[in-house]
Design goal:
Layout: H1 11-70, H2 78-91, E1 95-102, E2 105-109, E3 113-118, E4 129-132, E5 143-150, E6 153-160, H3 161-171, E7 178-181, E8 184-186, E9 192-194, E10 202-208, E11 215-220, H4 224-232, H5 234-258, H6 261-270, E12 274-283, E13 289-300, E14 304-306, H7 312-318, H8 321-336, E15 347-353, H9 362-372, E16 379-386, H10 395-406, E17 410-416, H11 423-428, E18 433-436, H12 438-441, H13 448-464, E19 467-470, H14 476-484, E20 489-490, E21 499-500, H15 501-510
Parallel strand pairs: 13-15, 15-16, 16-17, 17-18, 18-19, 19-20
Antiparallel strand pairs: 1-2, 1-6, 2-3, 4-5, 5-6, 7-8, 7-11, 8-9, 10-11, 12-13, 12-20, 12-21, 13-14
Bound molecules: guanosine-5'-monophosphate (2 copies) and manganese (II) ion (MN).
One guanosine-5'-monophosphate (G) binds near residues 352, 414, 491 and 493.
């Protein structure tokens, strides 16, 4: 409809909103998925680190068992103890070697027997554990050394760094894991480093053993999260994209629908923007106002006063014309009823109706309600059916017209001569008046054939006993011609233009019998 309220200011949000609505589920979904991935990574990093701690603790249990079994032998001569040292290596899994020391001097080993090497208790964290990067037997090969001591003597057991490395690599193949003892640490490269290991890029976990002075640090490399996304979420991401697209499209559709003619008419109806305008119908002879046709106007907030031919077709198409006419009848009654004294008895109020009104009997109630506003006999309600679109003679329609006649409502056939209604049609609907279309009135003074058509219509209506109203009378010539040919009622700019209720009532009150009513500035502000 060319009439929807212009919304320049809101144009941007109308185009933007569908995008926002479409993108929102994707962004939210991805945020949730990201949070889920991080939670999963944190949980699995925690679990893996704990597993490594427990595994290393189990190794150290074996080492401590061996060392503590040998502790009573510390100080004894090596040749007495040597066999026991070897027995502990054999009996305890993970134990690579055992040795005894006395006064910071390692004097007996399971591998070499009697032996001399200095031992520095300061190398051991808590005097107990040392992650060393190699010894004289296997230089450059990591070793974890456990030391059990009693005063200045004690026993030492070692586990090969390969066992640690296997644990780190097998338990957490996808993770970055390091075992830390004091300020030495070893990662999955199997090399002992000094200092603090770098924190993992994500899900960094540091878990200390409660039983031995070591800890394990775990986490994931930077690209792990991306890999997880790639392997877990393509389907979900696809679903989110589809969801976003659907949400955006639905939103766009809704916004468009909200701007549709139907929605705009509904808004106008609720805002009470449809007003009745009144165009008098005058009687032949004295040309007093014998009635008026109610013409709908739309007092549009942006467009101003809108003529019905610009919006009535949409209202008819959508069926909203019924509610609009009901509101129009109500307003007309409210405007006129307080001034009913100004109207002569039998004052005709013409209201335009369409085929939609004839689908059920609701029009009957609307008419009844209208008439109840006036003293009996004061006004005659005349429903104008346009001849351009014929109403079907269904049982409901016939019943409706029957009942309308019963309550005194009259039927006029509007725009007569422009359609193709048959005489049968006039009879079926018990039409009371014909309104000659203004195109025929405009022919007056023209060629003989046109005038002949007009005269035939007038004659026909007389023969059928129908009242006749000529529309669109603009000149004295037309007025006088019609009067001469027996046309009872006339309507047209010559007498008055359609006018708002206040002006109509004022004219009724001040010059009720005026031959020609004052033609003030046309009350209508026509659009376009
Ligand atoms: O005054 P005018 O320009 O008002 O009217 C234009 C057309 O709109 C006319 O053909 C008239 O029949 C139609 N019209 C005016 N008011 C109404 C109304 O309330 N209902 C219907 N259905 N048509 C109307
Ligand atoms: O319902 P109907 O189609 O009869 O509505 C009458 C239409 O004719 C309205 O649009 C009304 O404004 C218009 N009209 C009324 N009197 C005149 C007139 O004298 N000349 C012209 N051109 N139009 C008129
Ligand atoms: Mn009409």
């Amino acid at each position: 409809m060319p009439l929807t309220a212009k919304r320049h200011a809101s144009l941007s949000w109308r185009t933007l909103l569908p995008w926002v609505v479409g993108v929102l589920p994707v962004v939210c979904g991805m945020a949730v998925m990201n949070w889920q991935v991080e939670r999963e990574m944190q949980a699995s990093s925690q679990a893996t680190t704990r597993q490594v701690v427990e595994h290393v603790e189990r190794m150290l249990d074996n080492l401590s068992k061996a060392a503590n079994a040998l502790l009573p032998l510390a100080g004894n001569p090596c040749d007495q103890a040597q066999l026991m040292l070897r027995a502990q290596v054999t009996r305890n899994a993970f134990v690579r070697s055992t040795s005894l020391f006395r006064r910071n001097n390692l004097y007996c080993s399971s591998l070499f027997g009697a032996f001399e090497e200095p031992v520095n208790p300061g190398d051991y964290v808590d005097g107990q554990l040392w992650l060393m990067d190699g010894n004289s037997v296997t230089p450059g090969h990591p070793l974890l050394v456990y030391r059990a001591s009693d005063a200045d003597r004690g026993a030492i057991s070692t586990v090969d760094g390969d066992h640690l490395l296997t644990a780190l690599r097998l338990i957490g193949p996808d993770e970055v894991l390091q075992i830390r003892v004091g300020n030495a640490w070893m990662g999955q490269d199997g090399i002992v480093h000094k200092g603090v290991p770098p924190a993992a890029a994500s899900a960094n976990v540091l878990l200390g053993s409660t039983r031995y002075p070591f800890s394990v640090q775990g986490g994931y490399a930077a690209d792990h999260q991306r890999q997880l996304w790639r392997s877990h979420y393509p389907a979900l991401l696809g679903l989110l994209l589809i969801l976003g697209a659907v949400a955006g499209l639905v939103c766009r559709w809704q916004i468009r629908r909200a701007g549709s003619p139907r929605a705009e008419l509904q808004r106008a109806l609720e805002a009470d923007e449809f007003l009745p305008y009144f165009q008098p119908v005058v009687r032949k002879g004295d040309y007093r106002w014998a009635g008026a046709e109610v013409l709908m106007r739309w007092n549009h907030p942006q467009e101003g006063l809108v003529r019905p031919d610009l919006f009535i077709p949409y209202a008819e198409h959508s069926g909203q014309i019924v509610a609009m006419t009901r509101a129009l009848l109500m307003h007309t009654a409210q405007h006129l009823a307080p001034y009913a004294g100004l109207l002569e008895d039998g004052f005709h109020i013409g209201v335009n109706i369409t085929a939609d009104h004839c689908r059920d009997l609701s029009l009957l109630d609307d008419c009844r309600t209208f008439l109840q506003h006036f003293p009996p006999g004061r006004v005659v309600l005349t429903l104008e059916l346009t001849e351009r679109k014929l109403i079907e003679a269904t049982p409901t329609t016939l019943e409706l017209f029957e009942k309308l006649h019963e309550i005194g409502v009259m039927i006029a056939l509007d725009d007569f001569g422009t359609g193709q209604s048959s005489l049968n049609y006039l009879r079926q609907f018990k039409v009371d008046y014909l309104k000659i279309d203004q195109s025929f009135v405009a022919m007056i003074g023209g060629d003989a054939l046109s005038v002949h058509i007009l005269e035939t219509i007038i004659e026909l209506s007389a023969k059928l006993g129908l009242g006749i109203v000529a529309e669109g009378v603009e000149t004295d010539t037309q007025r006088d011609y019609l009067a001469r040919h027996g046309v009872e009622y006339q309507q047209g700019y010559l007498f008055a233009r359609p006018m708002p209720a206040a002006q109509f009532l004022e004219a009724l009150a001040t010059r009720p019998g005026a031959l020609r009513l004052p033609q003030a500035a046309p009350p209508e502000i026509m659009r376009g």
